[in-house]
Amino acid sequence: xxxxxxxxxxxxEILKKLVEDGRVTYTNVAKELGMSPAGVMKKVKxxxxxxxxxxxxxxxxxxxxxxxxxxxxxxxxxxxxxxEVAKKIYDCIKDNALEIHEITGPxxxxxxxxxxxxxxxxxxxxxVLTIPGIKESNTSLVLETIAERISIVPKDLRIGKKxxx
Length: 165
Known about the structure:
This protein is of the alpha+beta class. It has two domains: 7-57, Orthogonal Bundle (Arc Repressor Mutant, subunit A), CATH 1.10.10.10; 62-141, Alpha-Beta Plaits (2-Layer Sandwich). Helices cover 35% and strands 21% of the residues. The protein has five helices and six strands. It has helices at 9-20, 26-33, 37-49, 82-93, 118-129, and strands spanning 6-7, 69-77, 97-102, 109-115, 134-141, 158-159. It is elongated, with a radius of gyration of 21 Å.
């Protein structure tokens, strides 16, 4: 298991602010945390260079774009084919796929897709089910999303000790 890094309280607070609003300015974060904007920028650049902040994105309301339905597709694959199947799924339906994961349990791959209607879903399923190595599928309509987040800042992060001045 990878060794967990230690983070300063300020770094954790900066991460929380960015997760809450990725467009927040360094100046606003600095005011809230009692730091200088340059200090916030330095910490953000450090978190980016460490790969902790991977990228920034917009969260889209797909229903307003005509893709009101979300589906979960569970797939069983031939032994040892889950990674290959997952990659091929991405290649053939990437414009509709929100997430594709290799998983443990009775299924091997889980895919979350958006579609405008049943006809579009059927088209996506036809593409997916022609991929060699898929043995079985199970598709469910998402009735209501209770919580959906792109990222969180875990509460149990280890905080580093302050250096003596």
